[in-house]
Structure formats: C-alpha cells, structure tokens
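CORE FACILITY INTAKE
Project code: CF-77B
Contact: R.S. (postdoc)
Sample description: multi-component assembly, two entities in total
Requested service: structural model of the whole complex
Turnaround: standard
Below are the sequence entries exactly as provided by the requester. Do not edit them.
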Amino acid sequence: MGIRIPALLLGALLAVFTASDLRAVEPDEVLDDPKLEERARELSSELRCMVCQNQSIDDSDAPLAKDLRILVRERLKAGDSDQQVLNYLVDRYGEFVLLKPRFALHTLFLWGVPPLVLLGGGLAIFLAWKRRKRDSGGEAKQAPLSADEERELKRILDDSAP
Amino acid sequence: MMAMTVEFGHYALVLALVLSLVQSCLPIYGALKGDRRLMAVAGPVSGMLFLLVGLSFAALTSAYLSSDFSVQNVYENSHSLKPLIYKITGVWGNHEGSMLLWVLILVFFAALVSAFGRSIPDTLRAASLGVQGWVSAAFLLFILATSNPFLRLQPAPAEGQDLNPILQDIGLAIHPPLLYLGYVGFSITFSFAVAALILGRIDAAWARWVRPWALLAWLFLTLGIAMGSYWAYYELGWGGWWFWDPVENASFMPWLAGTALLHSALVMEKRNALKVWTILLAILTFSLSLLGTFLVRSGVLTSVHAFATDPARGVFILAILCVFIGGSLTLYAWRAPMLKQGGLFAPVSREGALVLNNLLLTAACAAVFVGTLYPLALEAIANEKISVGPPFFNLTFGPLMIPLLIAVPFGPYLSWKRGDLLAVAQRLWAAFGIAIIAMLAAAWLSGAERILAAPAVGLAVWVIAGSISEILSRARFRDVGIGTGISRLAGLPRSAWGTALGHMGLGITALGIVVTSAFEVEAIRSVQPEDRFELSGYEVVFRGVAPRRGANFTEDVAHFDIYSGGAKVTELEPTKRLYTARQMPTTESAIATFGFSQLYISIGEVREDGGVDLRAYHKPLITLIWLGTLVMAAGGAVSLSDRRLRVGAPKRARQQPSPAE
C-alpha cells in the first residue's frame, strides 16, 4: 500500500533531552530540485537521528540530524543513488543509522518471524483441520453431536439456568 | 487532620496488600475444595480492596490539590500555579501515581466482576477473583517496595518542580485512564482463563461469560489508543499520528491480541470449538499488557512515558512478568491437552473466516512484537545496536492488513459450519461495485505518481460498503418491503449491529489512513508578516507574532488568517511556549477542521525580524482515522448491550433468527 507513515517517535519528542524545539526540516535546507528534494525526504525518513529517541532525521530538530539531512542532500546533488547514500551513511555511522535493518544473519530472526508465524500458523491450522476431518470419518459438514458433546451441552444449559 | 491524609493513604495501600493476599488464597482454595464459605470471601474482599485503593488514590489526589510539597511525588510533579485540572491529572502523570492508577483499575475490574458477575458459576467466579488477587498483590507490593507515591520530604520545599509540560494537556486527563481501563481490563480474561485451567473445566459457556469482559476492555483500549494517537498528533507538532514507537506498540500488541480474542471467543461460544486457542489468547493478551507495562515502566525504553530510572523497578516488574506469564503458560501446557475439541467446521465457514482473522492478527501482532523487542534483545545478547523503525513495520505489518481487509466483509455473511463463498460473493456485488468506483475515483485524483493509493482506497471503501451491505441484507428489503425491512433492522440482535459497526469503523479508519497518507500536502517555509502562500486551495496569510502569558508559561503566538475562495474562513494561532518552572519550550500546533479534513500549522524559531519558520499541512480526511475508532468502540458498546451478553445468555445464541444462517 502506498502508505508512508511519518517516522517519528513519541518518545523522541523529549525536548527534555534537546532543549531546543521543533524545527525538523528547515526552509534553508530544502533543495531547489523538487525531484531531488522528494528523494531526500524519503531517505531522511529511513535514517535514524542517532542522538534522539527513535526519531528519524526527517523529524528531528537535533543539530546532528540537521547535519545528516544536509549530508544526504549533498550526496544526492553529487549524483549518488539512494542506495549509495545509505551505504555511505552506514559506512560512517554503522547500521544503527538505518530504521529498516538490512536483511542479514543477525536480522534473520527479525525479518523471519512475521512470515514464519503466518506460514507456520497456516500450516498448523491446515494439519489440525485434516486430522480432525480424518478422525471424524471425513464428514465435516454434518457431524452429529457425540454422546460426550450431548452431555457437555446439557451441562452448559443447566449451568446457566439459575 | 489534613496533614495525616497522606499517611492514611499509605496505610490504606498497605492494608490493601494484606487483603489482596487474603483474596489470593481463600477463594481459590474454597473453589477447589467446594467450600462455599471460603468462596464467598471473594465478593466482599474485592469490594474492600477497591475501596482501600480508591481511598489511597484519593489521598494522593488531595495532596496534589493542596500542593503539599512535603510529599516527594507532589514536589517532583506539581507546582502551586499549575491549573486545577493538571493538578488532578498530574496524579497519574508520573511513574508512582500511574502505577497506583493501574492497580486502582485492576481492583475496580475485580469489584465489577463480583458485583455484576452473578450469572457466572460461584466456583469460576471465586477462582477468577483469586487469580485477580495474585495480580493485585504483586503490583501492590511493587508500588510499596519500589514506587511509593507517599514518601515525605523533610524539610518540605516551598515550591514544586512542575509537571512535564508536554503532559500538561487535556489528553493526560483522558488517554491514560482509558488506556489502562483497556490494558488492565484484560486482566479479567486472563484471570478467567487461569481459573478455568485450575478448575479444569472449560466449555462454551466460559466464552459466553468472558466475552463481555473482553469486549469492555477492548472498547476502552481502542479509545485509549486512538486518544493517544490524536494527542501525539496535535501536541508533537510534526503532524504524525502513529510513529511505531515502542510505547505505542506496547499498547497496540494487546489490542491486536484482544481483537483476535473477541473473534475466537465467538467461535468458542457458538460452536464450542477453538477452546485451546481461545484460552491461550486470553493468557497472551494480558501477558502483552504486562509486557507493555514492563517496557514502559522499567525504563528499558527511554521515552516520555518511562519515568522510571531506578533499575530496581525494572527488575521487579520483570520478575512479575516472568512469574505470571511463565506460570500461566506452564499451567496451560499442563492442562490444555486435556481439553476436548468441539464443533467441526469446513474451511469455508464463519468459523473458518474467524480462524483466518486470528491467523492474520496473530502474525501482525508477532511482527509488532519482534520489531519492538528484537533491538533490545540483540543489544543485550550480542551487544549490537540496530534500529527498527516505521519502514520495517510498514513492510511487515502493512501487507498482513491487505488480506485481512479483503476478508472482513465476507466473514459475517458466511454461515456457521459450512459456508458458500460464491453465494456470499454474489451478495456482496454492490459493495464490490462501490469499492471499484471509489478506486477509479482515487486513481483519477491521484494520477500516475501515487497510483498505489487507488487500490488502497478501494480496499477501505470495500470494508465500509461490505458492513453496510451486510446489515441491510439482514433486513431483506427486497423480499419484505421497506416498512417490514426497517422493523426487521430494528429487531436485529444488538450483536449484529455491533459487528457491522465494528467492521465499518475499521474501514473508516483505514480510509482515513490511506487518504491522508497519499494525498497530504506539506509546506515548509519561512514567512515574514503579511506573507501569503497557497496550500491545497486555501490561502494562508501570516499576520505576525505577539507574546502572550498563561498561568504557568509564556508564549509567542503566530497569527494566521486562512482564506478560501477569497473569503476568510478561519484563523489559526500556533504558538511556541516556554514553561517557566522547568524552562522547557514546547510547540503548540494549531488545527482547523474542514469537513473531515484538517489544516495543520506549527511554527519553529521566531526570528528577531518578526518572521517565523513553519510547517503547514493539508491532511485530507484525517479525522476519519479517529472517527473510525469511535465507530469501532460504539460497535463494542452496542454488542455489550446485547441482552444475551448482558444477562449471561439464558438461551443458546444459535437459536437466534438470522438470514445468514
């Protein structure tokens, strides 16, 4: 879905830590070329302001974030591709700067869990269904109540009577 | 006498701890031994617990109201000049006070169950209240041992340090109480699940007794999260409404699990199936609430919510977390295999749809879970620092919502046991047509650049139209005519309306998210007085900055006139505030609502020459995000008022007449 959710963090707000206040992208930083500026904004929202709490450099008012925003724009003006800009920043600041961690051995679990839960859960449901279908003689649609179930039902109805 | 109020509150809290230990033991022992007198202890003790913790809370509140700075908690978080409302809300605007509110709501729910849970069998009610007693005892001990709000200062300071200015907002009056009512409300479903496992009796009736409580907690959690989101939106000044912040995720995970629980409990109640899974979900939902409490309260995540910096607190909550989650899951592993599975169903059926709902919600919850905790775990284990931010969640959580939204309109149409997908699809043709029209309209508006917006809009409209079409089809206007149709609509079970409203609310929220994300217009610029610029058809004129003085702050107010079609439609006054006590600046954005859309301006630096830097947005249909959650919560409330849920369901719900069955 074409949903770009702004990458800020509630916690980040903590002006407590950065005694200045909201500025984020300042007018003097904005590039003249709108295409380039849009790429810069997209990239900025994927880069972490490293002195803030979970905030992207696009949203942060910290001086370091401003430096990074200007750096991103300089690299773009120099003709770097998006990937080159990201690589450049990771080389300088480490992977911590990326809000979307790279897929690698140490993030295998991170990226693996959501699809694994989906597929594993789906498989478990399928197997459980097959097993129960087999147990009940392959007739899933009109299984009559077993004696146990009848008792169970009776008990439930009795329970809620008073 | 007044001087003793605080000690009285402290004493009441200690007494509550002792009583909660009584509640932890006697009723459960009684339930296991079949001793009615011991079980009967649960009711009055629950009432007393609520009374004592309530008195304790009142004592702390009175210390805030009288600005008694000899109390350390009041000194650190209040100020004599603070407006009255923030003196009250400041009670829970800090670690100690918010934990007290947490426990107050915990014992409140126990008291509710003992007062209104008459239809629940005595043994189950007594055992559940006993389990609730364990949770109360653990958290009361936590407060008294590590987070006591009643500690005194000697000598008493003359003035307080004031409340964090960001918290000095009406949002603090609403957001935490609602959120806690939801978060902590799921303790009841947890207690019911653990009690049922202890007693070894779990059947469809269990789901019927538990569902109203799950619904109640869910509806408060929905409102609490939505309120928090709106608060962040207008207070933070960046125009964002959801940040995938760990603190937000901490409340979102129980919501996802709780939503799954509501749906699976339905299968359990109606068809006696999914019992093992529903019990597990009830345990997991509250476990995620506990995890959220740990994340927020321990200081593991340093953020505005993490008032705690004392590691003892973190370790204590972690211990509570391990005991309750570990204990309940062990009990589950031991008892669950004894459960017999009930009603069979074909893959394409109402049950099948609800299973799909659970699968997708669980996977979504897992994505949020791993994204929130993985960086912490990696740092603790491998000492490697990585960041997991919005781009990760958009990639993992987002795609899971697509099949979920596609499937939602089908669910209520499918019959139990075995459904006919083709027949349902035929009955949804009108909703499908409306969705296609919405999609084409969005494609026409968005152009080639944001072409992904079109199917997303179509999907959201599909959910809304699907829910309307479902409720209308139950009236069978075509067969019975308008008059009878309307009376049929009025005669539908409330739970049918609840389902339709819940799903419609989801669609409305989705529509707001999609439209505002795709069609938002932003302007970042510096302006001088009398400068004007255009924003999405509105003309914004900057009139200048003037100083203003509030009760405990000073501010620079920027004045903007907004014109549309040559006529002035409104004025906006975003400000930059300086809270004098803490010398802390904040940004107050200004918002004007036009229909469902909003114009949003916040200012940055005010320059010597009278100019300002600003960020202005036009956010189309953004209010739908929160209106949708209100509709969802209304759906929950309507369901809750259903007679069958209210009076403990004397009749089997399966007998209810409904055209879909």
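Facility notes:
- Residues 104-135 of chain A form one domain.
- Chain A has five helices and two strands.
Invoice: internal transfer
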